[in-house]
Amino acid sequence: MTRPIDEAIVAEALAWTGTPYRHQGTRRGVGCDCLGLVRGVWRAVYAAEPEDPGVYARDWSEAGKGDPLIEAARRHCAEKPLAAMVPGDLLVFRWKPHYAAKHAGILVAPDRFVHAYEGHAVTVSPLVPQWRRRIAGVFAFPERPEE
Q1: Which end of the chain is more exposed for a tag (fewer CB within 10 A), N or C?
Q2: How confident is the model at residue 2 (pLDDT cuts 50, 70, 90)?
Q3: Torsion-angle region of residue 101: left (phi > 0), alpha (psi -120 to 50) or beta?
């Protein structure tokens, strides 16, 4: 069953397609990185972000401690099993097993997700095995109070 919030998340994520990549950017049509895409979608759907991540370097996941992207997703969204993911869910990816997760996207179809990555505009990509095996977490966005 599709929740209204999932439909709103998918519609907003798709509206970001073509936004240029900009490290730390969060503005649709102007520029964003993967976290900026998620932050911008959140702002559009909920009217305000749940927290400010502060300034972060391009190599933050290799140089830092802990798993801040996963930890933030757990604070604000409901974690769920990979097999239960549906369009509208937040996907968090880990490039290497011993590093923090450092990429995020939003599932927009059972086999497609929207994301931003360096050198490319926000795009819809197939969720092929190379992407699936890097999924570190799947999270459902919270319901809006009025729903």
Answers
A1: N
A2: confident
A3: beta
Q: How many helices (H) and strands (E) does the chain have?
A: 5, 8
Cα–Cα distances in Å, from 71 out to 4, 88, 111? 25, 19, 25
Supply 18's token pair.
């073509």
- Say which residue, 60 or 104, is predicted with more confidence: 104
Spatial separation of the C-alpha atoms in residues 16 and 146, rounded to whole Å: 25
Q: How far is CA 58 from CA 22, 24, 37, 64, 117, in A?
A: 11, 9, 16, 11, 11
Report yes or no: 114 and 61 within 8 Å, Cβ to Cβ. Answer: no
Enumerate residues 6+ apart whose C-beta is below 8 A from 102. Answer: 60, 61, 69, 93, 94, 95
Residue with the bigger pLDDT between 109 and 95: it is 109
Contact 103, 118 (CB under 8 A): no
Rounded mean pLDDT of 120-142? Answer: 97
Structure tokens at 27: 């503005």
Model-wide pTM > 0.85: yes
Determine which helix (DSSP H) or strand (DSSP E) holds 45, and give its type and residue range. Answer: helix 34-46
**Cβ neighbours for 12, distance < 8 A, ≥ 6 positions apart:** 41, 44, 45
